[in-house]
C-alpha cells in the first residue's frame, strides 16, 4: 500500500530516454526546463514527451514550448485571485476567461444586426452566431441520419440517442433469436407433448431443457 501511495504522489518525467521521478511537481517543472529544454539548440523547440499528440511538431519559440509542457507536467501557475475560488489554469488566457465568471464581463458582442447578446469568450459567441445564419457544420455520421448541429456538444448529445436505440434493437434481436432457437430445437408436435405450462411461458427455461 505504501508503494502505491508513493507512486500516486510522485511525478515522472516521460521525456524520451528519461524516467526520472520527483516527489514534487515544481521539481519536475524545473527538471524539464533546465535539462530537456534549455540544453537543446536555440532553434529546436520540440516536445519529446512520450505519447505527445504533437508528434514532434516543433514550436517557433522557447516560451511556447514551456507553456505546452504544462500539459504534461500538470503545472497550473495562473491562479484565480477571488476569495474562496481555488481554480488554477495552465494558460493565462484561460484564467482571464474564468475571471469573467466572477466579474460578469462579456466583451464578445454578437455581430448579428439587432442582437444584443454578449459572451465571455469568442467560442461561445461563434456558437451563438451560427444560430442566426442557420449554419450547422456538425453532421451526424450514422448512416441514414441527416441531422446537423451548430456545435459539437449538441451533436454528441444526439449521437447518444443513436447508441440507446442500438442497444434496444440488440435486445429485440436477441429475443427473436431465442424464439428461433426454440423452433429449431424440437418440432411443433414435440413442443405440444413435452412442454409444461411453465416452460411455455418461459423460453429460457425451455432452452435449458433442450440443451
What are the main properties of this structure?
Double Stranded RNA Binding Domain, two-stranded antiparallel sheet, 3 domains, 8 strands, two-stranded antiparallel ribbon, single chain, 211 residues, extended, mainly alpha
Account of the 3D structure:
By secondary structure, the chain is mostly helical. It folds into three domains: 2-74, Double Stranded RNA Binding Domain, CATH 3.30.160.60; 76-105, Double Stranded RNA Binding Domain, CATH 3.30.160; 152-210. Helices cover 53% and strands 8% of the residues. It is built from nine helices and eight strands. It has helices spanning 2-9, 25-37, 62-73, 92-103, 122-133, 152-185, 188-194, 197-201, 203-210; strands at 11-12, 21-22, 78-79, 88-89, 108-109, 118-119, 138-139, 148-149. A two-stranded antiparallel sheet has the order 1-2. Strands 3-4 form a two-stranded antiparallel sheet. Strands 5-6 form a two-stranded antiparallel sheet. A hairpin with an 8-residue loop joins strand 1 (11-12) and strand 2 (21-22). The radius of gyration is 30 Å and the shape is extended. This is C2H2-type domain-containing protein. GO terms for molecular function: DNA-binding transcription factor activity, RNA polymerase II-specific; RNA polymerase II cis-regulatory region sequence-specific DNA binding; zinc ion binding.
Structural class, please? mainly alpha
For the termini, the CA-CA separation is 47 Å
What portion of residues belong to β-strands? 5-15%
Radius of gyration using CA atoms only: 30 Å
Q: Would you identify the regions where 5 or more consecutive residues have pLDDT less than 50?
A: 1-8
| Total beta strands | 8
* Count of distinct structural domains: 3
CATH homology group of the largest domain: Classic Zinc Finger
